[in-house]
Amino acid sequence: GAVVSQHPSRVICKSGTSVKIECRSLDFQATTMFWYRQFPKKSLMLMATSNEGSKATYEQGVEKDKFLINHASLTLSTLTVTSAHPEDSSFYICSAELGVGNEQYFGPGTRLTVT
Amino acid sequence: DAKTTQPNSMESNEEEPVHLPCNHSTISGTDYIHWYRQLPSQGPEYVIHGLTSNVNNRMASLAIAEDRKSSTLILHRATLRDAAVYYCILRPLHGSSNTGKLIFGQGTTLQVKP
Q1: Which pLDDT tens digit goes with each residue over B12-40?
Q2: Which of A19, A66, A104, B24 has the largest count of CB atoms under 10 Å?
Q3: Contact (Cβ atoms closer than 8 angstroms) between residue B31 and residue B88
């Protein structure tokens, strides 16, 4: 299957700082990537849909100025958590779509801890 | 948008078949039925998807009811590595605010006993 990577896998940052998470499709081009957040023992929550070369579409309740998404190429999307607070601590997961309507391939996730 | 209902948890013995049910009585004609699974501390993994006909791949089989109001994911021989949370998701192909998106529910936690 297609491979999606995320970097870093784990990050600890101080409150008030910004953190960038990268999502790469390694062996295919993805016009659409998705960002999810998952709290402990909860299901995944879709945050935003990222389309190459255009602005991301955010789900209701997700602050676009806090979670900056850039999809500059067909293989890379980045999520920047700005002015992070402890409540932003979570497992962030990206996915990439192998063509419109096809299955999504997920990255391994990034564990963010804000102290 | 249509929702799915799955049991919270199921148990299986190793090397036995597992049938994971999913109800989706309000499914629309353009909704694909997708199954993903998630092992602890990992991203979800695609398992299988279908529209109307039953589907088979190397991981599992998907049996879809004739009226499409329910489906069953079949793992033919469970292994310990199959222990995971299994998500049944309806993915609209078009005509919905959730077109193309995967909206995850709570899923079924499958335990496999040796």
Answers
A1: 999 999 999 999 999 998 899 999 999 99
A2: A104
A3: no
